[in-house]
Design a protein that fits this description.
It contains seven helices and 14 strands. By secondary structure, the protein is of the alpha+beta class. The radius of gyration is 21 Å and the shape is globular.
Length: 324
C-alpha cells in the first residue's frame, strides 16, 4: 500500500489460491485489511478498485491470479467543531498525540453523538487535526473501553500509522477481566463480521474478516480471570466477541455478556460489585509503535482506571484465588 501524495491511496494485490472463489469485496477486505469492507465496496462501486483492469461488482467471484488495483482519493477531512473538554495526554509532539481515553467517551462524532466526542476535544486542543482525515484518528476504542490511543497529528504520521496498523506492527495490550476460571493462556483465531440478525452487534462469522486475539492469565480467581490480551488484528469489538465466543465474556459487557451472574454463594459485596459494574471490564494498557518521523520504537502505558482497580480488589477479597 502506498500514498505517493496526500490526495490518493494506491495499492496492488493478487488473488491467492486460498481466496479463489470468494466474493470480490471479501477478497479485497483480506488483501487490504486497513480499510473497512464498506469503504472497499464503495471504491469497487466507483471503479476505484478494479479487477484485472476492469470494473466489477462486489459480489463477483474472483479467481486465482487475478490482479487488484486500488487508486482512490483520500477521504477528505470532515469539518467538526472543537470543544474545551480536558484531555489526558500521555505524550505529544508535532506528529503524534497519545491520549488516555476515559469510559463513556465516544471517539467520533456520529448520529446521536454530534459533539462531546474525543475528536471534538482533540480539535479543540490541536485545531490542525481538522485538516486530517477523521480528525487524525486511525484506530478506535469502544465508548466504554478505557485506555491508550494514538492520534496522527500530521499527514506523515497519518500515512505511517495506517501502514503500521495494516502491517500488524503496532503492539496493543489490554487488561481485561472475564467470567470463568481459565486454566491457561491461548489464542482465538476466528473471523468476525456483523451478527446475522442483530446488526448493531458483531459475531464470529465465517464470512467475516480474519481476527486473531492472544491472551494470557494475569491473575486467576475462583470464578473469574484477569487477563492480559494482545491483538494481532483490530476488528470491531474483537476482544469482547472472541472471549464471549468461548463462553468467557467480559464482566459488565452489556452487549455480549448477558445479565450479571454472581457465582453461587457470593457474598453481598461481590454480588454488588459484579451487578453494578456497568461497562465492559476492558482497558487499553500498552501501546507500542514506530515513530512516524524518527522510526524509533515508542512504547506507552496507562494505569488501570479506578473502577477496574476496585473490581479486582473485590475479586481478590471475596472470589478466593484458586490454587495453581
Amino acid at each position: 500500500m502506498s500514498q505517493d501524495n496526500f490526495d490518493s491511496i494506491n495499492g496492488e494485490a493478487s488473488i491467492s489460491r486460498e481466496l479463489h472463489g470468494t466474493r470480490f469485496d471479501q477478497a479485497a477486505a483480506i488483501l487490504f485489511p486497513e480499510f473497512s469492507r464498506s469503504r472497499l465496496q464503495a471504491w469497487i462501486g466507483a471503479g476505484a478498485l478494479t479487477l484485472d483492469g476492469q470494473t466489477a461488482r462486489a459480489k463477483d467471484k474472483v479467481t486465482q491470479g487475478q490482479h487488484l488495483v486500488l487508486a482512490a482519493a483520500v477521504e477528505p477531512a470532515v469539518s467538526w467543531s472543537g470543544d474545551s473538554r480536558p484531555l489526558d495526554i500521555v505524550y505529544e509532539d508535532e506528529h503524534v498525540l497519545v491520549v488516555n481515553k476515559a469510559a463513556g467517551v465516544v471517539v467520533h462524532p456520529a448520529a446521536g453523538h454530534a459533539d462531546g466526542t474525543l475528536v471534538n476535544s482533540l480539535i479543540g486542543y490541536a485545531p490542525e487535526l481538522e485538516q486530517l482525515p477523521r480528525g487524525g484518528i486511525v484506530h478506535r476504542l469502544d465508548k466504554d473501553t478505557t485506555g491508550i490511543m494514538f492520534v496522527a497529528r500530521s499527514h506523515l504520521a497519518h500515512q505511517s500509522l495506517v501502514k503500521q496498523l495494516a502491517a500488524r506492527s503496532v503492539q496493543r495490550i489490554y487488561a481485561a477481566v472475564c467470567r470463568g476460571a481459565l486454566s491457561g493462556g491461548g489464542s482465538v483465531n476466528a473471523p468476525i463480521g456483523r451478527h446475522p440478525t442483530v446488526r448493531t452487534r458483531m459475531a464470529v462469522n465465517e464470512g467475516g474478516k480474519p481476527a486473531i486475539t492472544h491472551y494470557r492469565i494475569a491473575e486467576r480467581f475462583s470464578h473469574h480471570t484477569s487477563l492480559s490480551v494482545s491483538l494481532e488484528t483490530g476488528r470491531t469489538h474483537q476482544i469482547r466477541v472472541h472471549l464471549a465466543s468461548r463462553n468467557n465474556p467480559l464482566i459488565g459487557d452489556p452487549v455480549y455478556g448477558g445479565r450479571p451472574r454472581p457465582p453461587a454463594g457470593a457474598n453481598t459485596e461481590l454480588q454488588t460489585a459484579l451487578r453494578t459494574f456497568s461497562r465492559q471490564a476492558l482497558h487499553a494498557q500498552t501501546l507500542a509503535f514506530d515513530h512516524p518521523a524518527t522510526g524509533q520504537r515508542c512504547q506507552f502505558e496507562t494505569p488501570l482506571p479506578d473502577d477496574l482497580i476496585q473490581l479486582l480488589a473485590v475479586l481478590r477479597a471475596h472470589d478466593t484465588v484458586a490454587s495453581l
